[in-house]
Structure formats: structure tokens, C-alpha cells
TrEMBL record, chain A:
This is ABC transporter substrate-binding protein. Residues 33-377 form the Leucine-binding protein domain. It comes from Falsiroseomonas frigidaquae. CDD domains: PBP1_SBP-like (cd06327). Pfam families: Peripla_BP_6 (PF13458).
Length: 414, 295
């Protein structure tokens, strides 16, 4: 009886710790083995849009790169950073120091991404970021070891914010998740609105994670008399904000508009079309965009939780595919020896994949591809499961992201 | 000056009402915790997970069986309460004679397992659950704010359930047995009362209260596996402030802290998540047994 209890207690105490640990520990020594660590949210609000689906996308990239047919072994491991910078840093440190990981992939949650960005640079490995939003990754905190693949706060401000301003939304109030990502999104969108002759009337910072009731904040935003309420948050926060805005009829009469600055397809699925219809949002990948994206989605197969891939998961695919091409091109040993050299090679080669089409990687680490402005369909317009978006417009890659000179990236100046 | 004050009042009034809505959830959840702790001496860390199960069962009843909100409001607490009874019989009952810590660890482990199972099955983004249209009749639409009828209903329902629970425990014969069994279980057993069965049903009732709160929450929040974990830490602070095991204490502090949190959201939003814990620290320093606790 005592033994049973001890076992049970040990298991209970070990459970939370397990989440932050990498799943393997033995360090193989083979020089022609590339080790990829997928670090993201496996248990919290960003799990569906990144999580195990990102790992599945990375595994598809490994398979389709063809590098394994040339005698190179690629190992993929995953871990949960629980949206906490300290957990993320610990995992990456162990991965690199103990497990010989060469590439860290995904890392949503900007605060964690910025911590990992510094660490990977220190260790001269490669950081392929898909999930994080902050434009600081290719701006003030840019690194020669980092490629920021999928999207960023500047792009969202430019695309969604731009569409709102053009539609007459000149005065803004922000509901901002109180951490690096929310601040960056609020800043980039605010700058954009002001540059277009609009004004920012105020902002409210909501604790992250842990805020579930946004009705107070929505009412404050409504009282500011702003024409647009900008939601500088993501995942569960955005879902609850939009759901409660509908409940409190914040947008009735059409005087106030809601701008979901970062809305993923998994959020739309969770909201349901009844609530989400009419929402304008920006993504760089949509599974039903064209024949290539549909083929990619098909090849990816059934995803965990039966979802369609998000742009973050597609970005994990695209970035790893391109890295493996570069590594194959320059030789695995050279790619493993220097993260900077591997990233330089990635920047020197044009990119091409089914999820994002053709593109390039800029000197500051910014991946360049088109950005799409979508509107969420009404339930009557949707022809089936996951048929959620209609395309409103496309911003070309060279227009979609912040001009390379404006980011303040030291790599560009030198 | 007076105009300024009026403006401030106008700003604060809607927040106070919204705070009451959150307070309603705190009160219901901390009430269940207080009952379980008071009678069983178990700190039920699985309470958040059981709250979440209530919301999920409501969703399943609607999506899979076509049973609407009103049916779920009755059925979901019964189903999740029955689940609680099984847990109590098979696991928690073995821990009564041990230190609180064992019950806490067991229920914490259970919470992680339950959340993990739901996350694997339903993902983390959550599921939609629309509030019944009937509540639109309760909508309060005045110049300073629009309050959805459903939120009015949440406050009313929560208040009534809290009141009923308090009446049962303080004013009925069953309640008297329960209170007696808490103090001297052997003596009560000697009078022919089946104390272990009473404990089981008490745990089931506490869990059912959590599930009831979950059904109330389903139309407001996204129905997702983490919805309970978001609440539970605050709710524990509420229980500690109210006084561990105090029924009245948990209800009054639940509504009260909801109000204070609501005001913090206007005055200094960044601190709205911490204000409850600051109050908890102050209360523990000045009245270690809590505001309504004895001893």
C-alpha cells in the first residue's frame, strides 16, 4: 500500500516537470546526423496552431527533402515551452549542450522566441522561427543565426491594419496581451495607423496568460469612442475577445469595428462561422488557397485533433525544407559546424515550396513571401468543413514586410 | 468636480456589474471547494478540471445528443458528479486519514490527466457553444452599458444555488448530520448514520457544483481544456481569504473579490490578475484563519 502511494505521488510530482524536458537524452556522435528540435506550446493556448502539428509538418519536410536518401540521418524531437521564456531557454540549452541539436524550429510566443534567439546565436546553431510574431526578431534583435519565416507584427499591421484604415477606421483603441508580442503588435499597428493620418486613442494591457473575461476591456474600448478596436492578442485571448464582443454587441450599429490583428484558422474554427463571419484577417498560408497548398495539405495527412494546417505549421514545413536543401548543398558537416554559415547559405538560395510558393530570405533574416487578406465567410457561404476564408486581396512580398532599412537590424548596417 | 465624479461613477458602474458576473463563478467554485474541504479535509485540486468537464459535457450533450442548454444545466452536474463519486470511492477515500498534502497531490495529478485527455481529444482552441436566445429577454440596454441577459442569469442562478446550498447545510437535518460528522465522525456513525456514504455524496455534490458552474460558463468563455486551470488558482485564493471550509466565507468573498477585480480592470488593468493575491497576502498576515474562518 505504501509503495503504491509512493509510486503514485512520484508520478504526480513528475508530471509537470516532464512537460519541459526533451524526450531523448543520449547524444549520438554521428557527423552526418542533423538533429532538429521543434519547440512550441504543446499544452496551452497555442497548441492547436503549432504544437504536435508543427512536428508533423517538419517530418513531412524531412521526407520530401530527399536528404535521407543521400545517407544523411535526420532526427526530429519536440518539447513544450509552456509559453514561458525560462522553460524555453532551459530546454534549448539542454538540447544544444547535451543532445547535440543543430536546428531549433517554430517557437511561438514572442517572449520565448526572443530568449531562444539570443541563446541560439550564442551557441552558433540555427533558429528557424515560424510561430512568433514580434518583428524585433528581424529588427533591433536580429541575429545571423535566425530566419523568421511565416509572418510578423509589421506585416499584420500593414495588411489588416491597412485594410481597416482604408475602410475609414481612423481612430483606434487597442486591447493588448501584456507581453512582448502584444506590445510589438500594438506598436507596429499604432505606428502604421498614425502614418496613415489616423490616431490611437488608448490601449488596455491584459494579463497574459490567464485572462478569460474581456468584457471589461471591451467596454473600456467602446467608451473611448474609437472607430476600431484592435485586438493585439492571439489564440484563446482572441477567441474570448471576439466571442464576448459579439455577446456584448460591441459592434452593433456598425459604428465600431473589431480588428483581429492576429487570427489563425484554428481560432476561426473554435469561434464558429456564426460568430466569426465578416472578420477581416491576414495570413501567409491558407490550406485552400491554390492547387499547391491543397496538395501540401493532402500530403500532410490527418493532423492531431483533425484540424487543417495553420500558417505556423506550414512555416515549419517551408523553413525546414529550405534548411535541408541548403545543408545538402553545402555539406552536412559544414552546416552543422556553423549556424551562421548555414543561414547564410539559406539566404543565398531562392526558396520554393508548395505552402508559400517562391520567395527569398533577406539579409536581416526575414523570409519574403506574399501576404493574403481574407474575410471569414458567412455560414451560408461555406461549402464544407474548414471552408472558412474568401480572399480579399494580396500584398506582394516586397510590399508586405517592413523595409529592410527601417528595422534597425545591425546585420544590414555593417 | 461633481461632473467629474459622475463620470467616474459612470465608468465604474458597468465594471462593478461585470465584476459581479466573475464573482458569481468564483463563489460557485469556491463554495464547492469549501464544502469538500470542510467535510472531507481534502484540498480538491481537480476542481478546475471538473468545472471544465461540466462545460464539455454540456457541449457533448448539445452536439451529440441534441440536448439543449436547460437539459445540460441539470444533466451535466449529475454526470460529472457521478464521475466525482467514482473518483472518491476508488481513490480519495483512501487518503482521509493522511495529511492534506496527499489529497492535494492526488487531485492535482487527476487534474493534469483529465486536462490532458480532453486536450488530446478536442485540441486546445476550444469549441463554440452559443447562449440560448431566450436570455435576450433579460438584456439590459441602458445608455451607460449593454449587459447581455445571459450574464444577468449567471448572477441570479449562482446566487440562488449558493443560497440553497447554505440553507441545506445550515438549516436541514442532513446538513446537521454533515456538520456533526465533520467534528466527530465516530460518534455520528455510532448513531447509525452511514458516514462514509455521506462523505462520498458530499464530494459528488461539490463536484456537481463545479460542473454546474462549467455549464454556466460554456456560452461565455471558449469551451477549452484549460478553462478550469485559468480559474482555479484565483478560486483557491478566494477560499483562503474567506477561510478554509467556511461556506458563508467562500460565497461572500467570491462575489466580493469579483467586484474588486472588476474595479482593478479600470484603475490598473495590468494588476487585475494579481490584486486577488495581494489581498490574500494581507488577509493571511492579519487574520491567518481567513475573514470568516474559525480558530
Amino acid at each position: 500500500m505504501t509503495m503504491n502511494r509512493r509510486t503514485l505521488l512520484g508520478a504526480a510530482a513528475a508530471l509537470p516537470a516532464l512537460g519541459g524536458l526533451p524526450f531523448r537524452s543520449a547524444r549520438a556522435q554521428a557527423a552526418n546526423t542533423i538533429r532538429i528540435g521543434v519547440l512550441n506550446d504543446q499544452s496551452g493556448t497555442y497548441r492547436d496552431l503549432s504544437g504536435p502539428g508543427s512536428t508533423q509538418a517538419v517530418e513531412l519536410a524531412v521526407k520530401e527533402s530527399g536528404i535521407t536518401q543521400r545517407g544523411v540521418t535526420v532526427e526530429v524531437v519536440q518539447a513544450d515551452h509552456q509559453n514561458r521564456p525560462d522553460v524555453g531557454s532551459t530546454v534549448v540549452r539542454q538540447w544544444i549542450d547535451r543532445d547535440g541539436i543543430d536546428v531549433v524550429v517554430d517557437v511561438p510566443t514572442s517572449s520565448v522566441a526572443l530568449a531562444v534567439n539570443t541563446l541560439v546565436r550564442e551557441k552558433n546553431k540555427v533558429f528557424l522561427n515560424s510561430g512568433a510574431a514580434t518583428s524585433d526578431l528581424t529588427g533591433a534583435q536580429c541575429s545571423p543565426n535566425t530566419v523568421h519565416w511565416t509572418y510578423d507584427t509589421y506585416m499584420l499591421a500593414n495588411s489588416t491594419g491597412g485594410a481597416m484604415v482604408r475602410a475609414g477606421g481612423k481612430s483606434w483603441f487597442f486591447i493588448t496581451a501584456d507581453y512582448a508580442f502584444g506590445h510589438a503588435l500594438e506598436r507596429d499597428t499604432g505606428n502604421f495607423v498614425k502614418a496613415q493620418g489616423g490616431e490611437v486613442l488608448g490601449a488596455v494591457r491584459t494579463p497574459f496568460p490567464g485572462t478569460t473575461d474581456f468584457s471589461s476591456y471591451l467596454q473600456q474600448a467602446q467608451r473611448s469612442r474609437a472607430q476600431v478596436i484592435g485586438l493585439a492578442n492571439a489564440g484563446g485571448d482572441t477567441i474570448n475577445s471576439i466571442k464576448q464582443a459579439a455577446e456584448f454587441r460591441i459592434t452593433r450599429g456598425g459604428r465600431v469595428k473589431l480588428a483581429g490583428l492576429l487570427v489563425f484558422i484554428t481560432d476561426v474554427n473554435s469561434l464558429g462561422l456564426e460568430v466569426a463571419q465578416g472578420l477581416v484577417l491576414s495570413e501567409t498560408f491558407y490550406w485552400d488557397l491554390n492547387d499547391k497548398t491543397r496538395a501540401f495539405t493532402q500530403r500532410l495527412g490527418a493532423m492531431p485533433g483533425n484540424i487543417k494546417p495553420s500558417m505556423v505549421q506550414a512555416g515549419c514545413y517551408g523553413s525546414v525544407l529550405h534548411y535541408l536543401k541548403a545543408a545538402g548543398d553545402m555539406g552536412v558537416a559544414a552546416a552543422k559546424a556553423s549556424g551562421v554559415e548555414a543561414v547564410n547559405r539559406m539566404k543565398a538560395m531562392p526558396t520554393s515550396d508548395d505552402a508559400f510558393g517562391d520567395g527569398t530570405i533577406r539579409a536581416d533574416g526575414r523570409k519574403i513571401h506574399p501576404c493574403y487578406l481574407f474575410e471569414v465567410k458567412a455560414p451560408s457561404e461555406s461549402r464544407g468543413a474548414w471552408d472558412y476564408y474568401k480572399l480579399l486581396g494580396t500584398t506582394a512580398g516586397d510590399q508586405a514586410f517592413r523595409p529592410v532599412a527601417d528595422g534597425g537590424c545591425a546585420l544590414v548596417r555593417s | 468636480m461633481i461632473e467629474n465624479l459622475l463620470f467616474e461613477l459612470e465608468m465604474a458602474a458597468p465594471q462593478v456589474i461585470l465584476g459581479l458576473v466573475n464573482g458569481a463563478f468564483y463563489a460557485l467554485l469556491s463554495l464547492g471547494l469549501a464544502i469538500i474541504f470542510g467535510m472531507l479535509n481534502v484540498i480538491n485540486f481537480a476542481h478546475g478540471a471538473q468545472f471544465m468537464m461540466g462545460a464539455f459535457v454540456a457541449w457533448m450533450l448539445l452536439a451529440w445528443a441534441g440536448i439543449p442548454y436547460w437539459g445540460a444545466l441539470v444533466l451535466a452536474p449529475l454526470i460529472v458528479g457521478a464521475f466525482g463519486v467514482v473518483i472518491e470511492r476508488t481513490m480519495i477515500a483512501r487518503l482521509y486519514k493522511l495529511d492534506h498534502l496527499y489529497g492535494l497531490l492526488l487531485t492535482f495529478g487527476l487534474a493534469l490527466i483529465i486536462e490532458g485527455v480532453f486536450r488530446n481529444g478536442f485540441g486546445s482552441s476550444g469549441l463554440p457553444y452559443a447562449p440560448p436566445a431566450a436570455f435576450n429577454a433579460l438584456n439590459i440596454d441602458i445608455p451607460i452599458m449593454f449587459l447581455p441577459g445571459y450574464r444577468v442569469w449567471v448572477v441570479i442562478a449562482s446566487f440562488l444555488v449558493c443560497l440553497a446550498t447554505w440553507l441545506v447545510i445550515e438549516k436541514t437535518k442532513i446538513g446537521a448530520y454533515l456538520r456533526a460528522a465533520t467534528e466527530r465522525p465516530e460518534l455520528v456513525q455510532a448513531f447509525g448514520v452511514n458516514v462514509p456514504r455521506m462523505m462520498t455524496l458530499t464530494y459528488g455534490a461539490g463536484v456537481a457544483l463545479a460542473a454546474f458552474a462549467g455549464v454556466l460558463a460554456a456560452p461565455i468563455y471558449s469551451v477549452n481544456p484549460a478553462m478550469g486551470a485559468n480559474f482555479i488558482i484565483t478560486v483557491f485564493a478566494v477560499v483562503v481569504i474567506g477561510g478554509m471550509g467556511s461556506i458563508m466565507g467562500s460565497v461572500v468573498t467570491g462575489f466580493g473579490l469579483g467586484l474588486i477585480e472588476g474595479l482593478a480592470r479600470v484603475v490598473y488593468p495590468e494588476a487585475s490578475a494579481t490584486v486577488v493575491f495581494v489581498i490574500m497576502a494581507i488577509v493571511l498576515l492579519t487574520r491567518p484563519a481567513g475573514l470568516f474562518g474559525r480558530g
